[in-house]
What does this fold into?
Amino acid sequence: MPQNDSAMPVVAIVGTYQVGKSTLMNCLLADSVAHMGDGNPTTHVVSRFRYGNDEIARLFHDNSDTPLKMDLPEYRKHDGTSKNAFKELDRVEFVMNRECLRHAVVMDTPGLDARGEEGSKDTLQTMAVLDDPQNPVDFVLVVLPERLSAPSEEVIRKVASLHSPFAVIMNCMEHRDPGACTKARDEIEAHMRNLGVSPVPIAEGRTVWPCNLAWYLWSKVEAQGKTRFSDLLEQWDRGINGSFEDQGLSMPSKPQIAAMSRVEPVLDFFRGGGMAFAPLRAHVDLSRAFDTWRQERHELALEASA
It folds into this structure.
C-alpha cells in the first residue's frame, strides 16, 4: 500500500521550457493530464501528482486553501484554456490511481528560462520549490534538449547544489531516433564530467539517457475528444510519418515506435528498477543532517577563533 504523502519521497521534474517535462509526466502516467506546449511556455504553475483512487484535479486560486475540484475528464476537456477555472491559478494537485505514484509524489514544474514577466514568475516558482527547506525535494529528473544551452547548464548546476540524487534525460525532439543521438549524449556526458556533477545512471551505466518522449506518448495514449492534445497528436503523427518517409523507410507499428523511443527504461527506472524509492527519504535526510552538523561545527569554530 502507498504511504502517506509526508512519508513518501518527492520527485521534481525540472528543465528549461519546452524540453518535454510535461510530456515526461504524461509518459509516466500513460495519460494526457499534464498540459503540453507547442513551442511556447505552457506550464505556469507547479503541478503535484500523488496516488489515490479519487481521479481528480484540485485547482488552487488566489492563495486560497480551498480548491476548485474537477474530475479528470472535465480537466482534460478544459486543457488549460478555460479563462475562469485557470485564472489566477497558484498550483494544481492531482490524485490518480497510477502505478508510478505508489512510491513517490511527483511534481511537474514550470520552465526555468521562459522569457518575459510571466516567464520570470515561472522561474521563481520552480526555484521556490527546489529551495523549500520545509518540503525538500528528494530526487530530481532533469530533462535536457540535445544541445546543452547556457540555461540548461544553469539548471544542472542548481540541481547539483541541492545535494539530492538526480538523473538526466535527453529528449530527442524533432522526431529524431534516439538511437542516432549517441554523439549528442556523449557530448553532454563529457560536459557533466567537466562540471564535476554525477547524475544517477538510468540504464546501461549511462549518466545521460536519450529518448523520444513524443514518440512514446503518441504510441500509447489516444486523444479523448477535440483538445489541444489531439492537435498535438495529429502534429506528431505527421512528423513521425514524415521522418520515416524522408529516409525512404516504411512506417513502424506503434509498439515498434514505443520500443524505439527508449522511454521504457526510464519508466522501469522510475518504478524502482534503477532507483530504490523506499530508502531515499532516509538517505537524503541523513545527508542533510550531516550538512547541518558540518555547518554548525564551522560556525562554532568561527566563534571560538573570534
